[in-house]
């Protein structure tokens, strides 16, 4: 195994012995090997054989915090890491003690999720140590402090739907620490913006009842009460409500009924108007009852004495035109 600072063929111990130098009458190589063997237990538990992790930093977005560092590379071996943190309480009331993060103890990863351990809005210090077997490096400590109030807050992801005349919004869940402030308005009426604050977003949320055919717009932002900070607003999403189908249906039914009535009454009206014009232009004269033609009897039976003179009865039928002219002359 090769460690930093050691070169091949360099058999030098912490005692200062170098091969080739005589300290007594014993062979030099034997003396060096003996002294190095005596000092070996001290080296096995020392902190100078592994370099401490470098480039320690924190990535914090939407109240999720991750500690990262650069790997310690040893050829042919797997280096493990342990992480500890120190909060305000440990510094001021627990003699500057450090608390191990169990999820990141002897891990081979170079990233550690410290979200659950950063549970207060105070300044934290963090450190990482490399381990290889019984050999440990010095602690590598992150420069400065970390406070979760500096986390980066991003706008929420949302989906806006128009279900009939209902304005609905669906927001991506970002954890229990987040609230959502949703603004919505009818397009063209930006001065009358409405607001709704939500803490739980397990399903679709009903915002408003829309006017038929109108367009509505929605945007939202996140807010974390624990740090009293809000994100920027999301892009604006707009949807349009469906048109009023009931009005169209009533109009269509009314039109159909009107057409059917017109189709049925038009022939009757045409016939009636033609009759009125016919009567106005060519009136029909009505004969009085005295001038009306009666059906002659088939046989006349005369009753009288046998001596009475028998006469032939003759009925003269005049044409209707002559009768009409005669009646007009009499009336004039």
UniProtKB/TrEMBL annotation:
InterPro entries: FN3_dom, FN3_sf, Ig-like_fold, Interferon/interleukin_rcp_dom, Type-II_Cytokine-TF_Rcpt. Coiled coil: none annotated. One of its GO terms (molecular function) is interleukin-20 binding. One of its GO terms (cellular component) is plasma membrane. Residues 171-241 form the Interferon/interleukin receptor domain. It holds the Pfam family Interfer-bind. Residues 30-139 form the Fibronectin type-III domain. PANTHER family: INTERFERON/INTERLEUKIN RECEPTOR, INTERLEUKIN-20 RECEPTOR SUBUNIT BETA. This is Interleukin 20 receptor subunit beta. The gene is IL20RB.
């Amino acid at each position: 195994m090769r460690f930093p600072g050691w070169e091949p063929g360099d058999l030098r111990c912490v005692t200062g012995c170098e091969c080739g130098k005589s300290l007594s009458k014993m062979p030099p190589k034997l003396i060096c090997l003996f002294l190095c063997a005596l000092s070996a237990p001290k080296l096995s538990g020392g902190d100078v054989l592994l370099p401490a992790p470098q480039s320690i930093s924190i990535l914090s977005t939407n109240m999720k915090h991750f500690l990262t560092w650069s790997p310690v590379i040893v050829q042919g071996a797997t280096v493990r890491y342990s992480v500890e943190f120190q909060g305000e309480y440990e510094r001021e009331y627990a003699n500057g003690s450090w608390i191990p993060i169990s999820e990141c103890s002897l891990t081979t990863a170079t990233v550690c999720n410290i979200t659950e351990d950063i549970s207060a809005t105070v300044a934290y210090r963090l450190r990482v140590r490399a381990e290889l077997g019984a050999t440990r490096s010095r602690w590598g400590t992150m420069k400065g402090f970390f406070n979760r109030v500096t986390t980066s807050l991003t706008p929420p992801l949302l989906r806006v739907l128009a279900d009939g005349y209902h304005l609905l919004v669906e927001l991506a869940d970002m954890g229990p620490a987040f609230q959502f402030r949703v603004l919505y308005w009818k397009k063209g009426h930006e001065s009358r913006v409405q607001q709704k604050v939500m803490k739980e977003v397990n399903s679709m949320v009903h915002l408003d009842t829309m006017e038929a055919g109108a367009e509505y717009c929605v945007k939202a932002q996140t807010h974390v009460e624990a740090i009293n900070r809000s994100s920027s607003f999301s892009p604006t999403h707009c949807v349009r409500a469906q048109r009023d189908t009931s009005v169209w249906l009533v109009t269509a039914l009314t039109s159909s009924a009107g057409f059917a009535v017109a189709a049925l009454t038009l022939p009757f009206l045409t016939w009636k108007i033609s009759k009125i014009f016919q009567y106005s232009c060519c009136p029909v004269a009505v004969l009085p009852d005295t001038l009306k033609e009666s059906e002659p009897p088939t046989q006349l039976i005369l009753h009288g004495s046998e001596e009475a003179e028998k006469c032939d009865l003759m009925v003269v039928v005049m044409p209707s035109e002559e009768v009409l002219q005669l009646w007009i002359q009499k009336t004039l």
